[in-house]
Design a protein that fits this description.
Two copies of one chain form a homodimer. By secondary structure, chain A is mostly helical. Chain A has two domains: 82 residues, Winged helix-like DNA-binding domain superfamily/Winged helix DNA-binding domain (Arc Repressor Mutant, subunit A, Orthogonal Bundle); 82 residues. Chain A has seven helices and two strands. A two-stranded antiparallel sheet of chain A has the order 1-2. In chain A, helix 1 crosses helix 4, helix 2 crosses helix 3 and helix 6 packs antiparallel against helix 7. The termini of chain A are far apart. The interface between A and B is large, with 65 and 65 residues. The first copy, chain A, binds a DNA duplex (28 and 28 nucleotides) through helix 3.
DNA sequence: CCTTACATGTAACAAGTTACATGATTAG
DNA sequence: CTAATCATGTAACTTGTTACATGTAAGG
């Protein structure tokens, strides 16, 4: 059910089409929530049905009409009610960690490749987060509560990426013995 | 599909019943993978169908028979093949972070309560992980590769918990201004 | 009396993924 | 020619959750 409230929160900030929401999730909310466009369109249809959102069609030449969604009073109430509820922490389901339990079936070459991919992934994430930081929160000391909250979500993304990179370094030390630039002086 | 390989890896280490596997996931693998008993029984049935596992019934007085599953040759091959594949990092879907995007609709009291719950959760996780560390990896310097891999998975759990606690402290500093024991001498 | 551990499942539902469908415009 | 952006969806499938079902024995 959280997708629904993620959409309501996004639309509460600013009305948007399904397409816009998809881009927002992909470009600026990847560290908070993920959803495909199919999921978004389906959930918007349901929410429209339950009158949590309303739609304003905007005709366009040569393209499908844009359907701009906004949160209704009922939607706002639903979101507010949800905010007062507690929620369990998301369950951990990580294929990379599962592999570590295959013991001798997992060889060093595969482990090394997965680890390199993981490091590349989180380095890329870090770059994205740093760029979001510069674009949206340039004056870190002087943010409204609204932006301070969003900044803290981004901080979470940054800490997660850093924590994984730290772990990856530990892995190399303890499992692979070879540093990143393995060709030079590693006697 | 990862559940399947998590089960294969667990059964490869030691044959077990669905019930046993459920306990293993709950007690010792919560930082790696999560699954309910219904999911486990369903997946075991499928894997039996595809001959990735075999079953040995063990009759018991006054209880349902224990059905001890073990990995077959085909199952081992499937697991090995899976280990050579790359896998995308799991998508982030965190209701707590979604709440931060509700802006002024989220009040300090609710935020404070959620944050306290989050801290309690990860402090509890840390306690569990520390106890697993003592029980399974007492001599950290002297582990076989097999156990070193599992130890690194546990390290991941520990780093995750620590990272969230660090973030929670940042949250208090930046959003709530009140330290944990707010009643005593706080400016 | 009540809960927990033991031991297995079925059924219905919700959430997320993958494949398919349409069609114009712009950039390389 | 090819891919990406814009803009909407449907359909089928897989994965994960919740509710229900059965029955004994031990511990507080």
């Amino acid at each position: 059910m959280t997708l629904r409230f993620a959409l309501l929160a996004a639309l509460h900030e600013e009305p948007a089409t399904g397409y816009d929401l998809n881009r927002r999730f992909r470009d600026r909310l990847g560290h908070v929530w993920n959803a495909s466009h199919q999921q978004i369109y389906r959930e918007l249809a349901r929410m429209l049905d339950e009158a949590l959102v309303a739609v304003q069609p905007v005709p366009q030449a040569d393209r499908p009409d844009r359907k701009v969604y906004r949160v209704t009073q009922g939607g706002k109430r639903a979101l507010q009610a949800w905010l007062t509820e507690g929620h369990p922490r998301p369950a951990i389901r990580d294929p990379f960690l599962v592999k570590l339990f295959a013991g001798e079936l997992l060889n060093d070459a595969d482990l090394e490749r997965d680890l390199a991919e993981l490091e590349a992934h989180y380095r890329e994430r870090l770059r994205t987060y740093r760029s979001l930081e510069r674009r949206w929160f340039p004056d870190e000391r002087n943010l409204s509560r609204h932006y301070r909250l969003q900044y803290m979500a981004l901080r979470r993304g940054i800490l997660t990426a850093e924590s994984w990179l730290q772990w990856a370094a530990e892995m190399r030390e303890r499992m692979l013995l070879s540093a990143r630039g393995a060709s030079k002086g590693n006697g």
